[in-house]
Amino acid sequence: MTLSTTVPTVKLLINGEFVESQTSVWRDVVNPATQEVLARVPMATPAEVDAAVAAAKTAFKSWKKTSIGSRARIFLKYQQLIREHMKELAAILTAEQGKTLADAEGDVFRGLEVVEHAASIGNLQLGEYAENVASGVDTYSVLQPLGVCAGITPFNFPAMIPLWMFPMAIATGNTFVLKPSEQDPMVTMRLVELAIEAGIPAGVLNVVHGGPDVVNAICDHADIKAISFVGSSKVGTHVYNRASLAGKRVQCMMGAKNHAIVLPDANKEQALNQLTGAAFGAAGQRCMALSVAVLVGEAKNWIPELVAKAKALRVGPGKDNPDVGPLVSCTARDRVESLIAQGVEQGAKLELDGRGVKVPGFEQGNFVGPTIFSGVKPGMAIYDQEIFGPVLCLTAADTLDQAIELINANPNGNGTAIFTQSGAAARKFQEEIDVGQVGINVPIPVPVPLFSFTGSRASKLGDLGPYGKQVVLFYTQTKTVTSRWFDDAASSGKVNTTISLN
Ligand code: NAD
């Protein structure tokens, strides 16, 4: 790993102070379009992780007692600050992550929606009340914060995913330790600075950087009560098992292989446009990217038009707002290219090859152009693995039933979509498909925060999803209180040794 010493360092946030790490292990943050080193990020020491958790633990004592209105007003201010800094945030994000500026704004915006939702916490964290559960006895429930919670985030949405986590955790009365992706921590840190500017008190939000050692320290730490993880299935499964063993509440949103069904009665132009955008947008580095299309019946004749649309996409540096930016790292590019080679070796038909694409002036960039395979089958590496690059696998089915069967046999359950003009077909698909997020003529059905992100099966561990109603339950403990008040006059009675309240 190359290390530069003349670039800015990414700071830790501990107890309200942005501080330089004392570690000896650093990693470069690299612009994927140019290989320019933008910053150095520390792998925090065990003592720094402990200090961040200790600050959060101390801050919890007062933060949990802060009024709902005070908490909500911080997020009202925060959403305003994010809006005001949208262009700046998008530019930082594009430089370190690679996605186009327009898509970077989308990344920030989808996180902003969660911040707006956090501002309405007063309506979300309500308990229940039942009068006279026994004569003169009432029961009510309250949703109390857990304590110190932690978040571990992936590289592909460095704005949206941190914003899935700390705003709702903090709005519900918890304190937080965030561990951003070490590949692109800069936009996350700018968002954290704005959160502090919005009024989040010292110790309520802390940030440590690092890789596996820091993640393991978070999983094991006795003072952390809950962990939200978003990333690959391999790491997420590890985090879920390790942190659950340590007694924590854990939610892990993980890898995917999202299929779209294209029925021959679909609006062809719309279906092909949506499919192309969802397969190749963000260079395929979305957990909700459509990476497999099942062409049913006559729809398999649409391959030449699909290839033509993919071919027309412009590949280039994100700052120029092309259609497809670079992959996040040279390693990611090499992995995607190797999977394309395996697809050819294993007998899939390469309809469009994006390897070796040339972007004048950006010869060092990690570019792979849109790539399409047809004749893809389970058992091929390109079908079985999440490619996480601009590669679309096409397969064919004779009927809707066959297509549904194929998708339900795939272990992943993050997202799926159907393209059709038939209400009956869509209704059948919605009912029978075993995937947690379903789009009907909507290629990337990520719910807005009035709902929750509901990936399922191998794409998710833990019952409750991030943001929305479910995350209020994730970040709180339900306490029920059963109470009876005696009239001063009620002085008669006797000892009751039964379990009845009467
Ligand atoms: P990743 O699993 O490599 O990294 C995620 C986090 O885990 C990072 O913070 C990283 O530092 C840490 N980490 C990496 N290796 C580790 C190890 N061996 N032990 C402990 N911690 C480790 O994921 P990524 O490559 O950054 O992100 C891409 C993946 O995330 C894809 O699989 C994608 O599908 C998934 N993802 C899922 C969702 C969802 O909502 N389901 C959303 C976005 C991304």
UniProtKB/TrEMBL annotation:
GO terms for biological process: L-valine catabolic process; thymine catabolic process. The keyword Transport does not apply. It comes from the Bacteria. Its EC number is 1.2.1.27. Residues 18-481 form the Aldehyde dehydrogenase domain. It is an enzyme of class 1 (oxidoreductase). Keywords: NAD, Oxidoreductase. The keyword Oxidoreductase applies. Coiled coil: none annotated. GO terms for molecular function: methylmalonate-semialdehyde dehydrogenase (acylating, NAD) activity. Belongs to the aldehyde dehydrogenase family. NCBIfam families: MMSDH. This is methylmalonate-semialdehyde dehydrogenase (CoA acylating). It comes from Pseudogulbenkiania ferrooxidans 2002.
